[in-house]
Amino acid sequence: MRKVSSLLVATAAAASIVFTSAASGGGSGFSPRVTNPWFPLTPGSVHVYRGIRDGKPSREVLRVTSRTKTIAGARCAVVRDDLYVDGRLRERTTDWYTQDARGNVWYYGEDTAELDARGKVTSRSGSWQAGRDGAIPGIFMPATPKVGQSFRQEYYKGEAEDHFRVVALLGENALLTEEWTPLEPGVLDHKLYVRGAGTVLERTVKGGDELNELVSLRRS
Hints:
Elements: H1 2-10, E1 46-53, E2 56-71, E3 74-85, E4 88-99, E5 105-115, E6 121-123, E7 128-129, E8 136-141, E9 150-152, E10 154-155, E11 163-170, E12 174-180, E13 188-194, E14 198-206, E15 211-218
Antiparallel strand pairs: 1-2, 1-15, 2-3, 3-4, 4-5, 5-6, 5-7, 5-8, 8-10, 9-11, 11-12, 12-13, 13-14, 14-15
């Protein structure tokens, strides 16, 4: 995995940008059963990551629940994401994903909360839901990734404006992307995906030192 980390820095390349987004309210053909092999969301599965956040050790636990939520007419899978920094719960997030008939995974929003040392919510910045206040869903993972493809993952003006680009296909089973947002100019993240597992490594390669590596994947 450390060898892959160095590859993340070396393989970033310029590519043409083709932004794709869905109009809110179009739920026909969408399913909460997310089976895209690059980002599978199997109900009951638990991903555990370890890394560094704000210079401190972190642990992230991502749970795919069996619940669904209908947003702007689309039924979405509900994913719980808890981030622990230096041993305490720092962020609590619920994410909503859905898959279209072609196999593209769409991101329909998140409900996020930052917590203080006593567990009190201090901020909900970054929360958004497709169809509300102009928020628009975006493609989180294409059905058939190709080098140079670029998509907008989300759009809620001033709060959630992430984009990503497919940088490299590493053989048949690994995929490298880069992510950025105009809300944090100068910051660039790389993500490594493995077919059948989803995200296995995330690293800030410019403008920070955050790191997140998959250490455990449990399926029910």
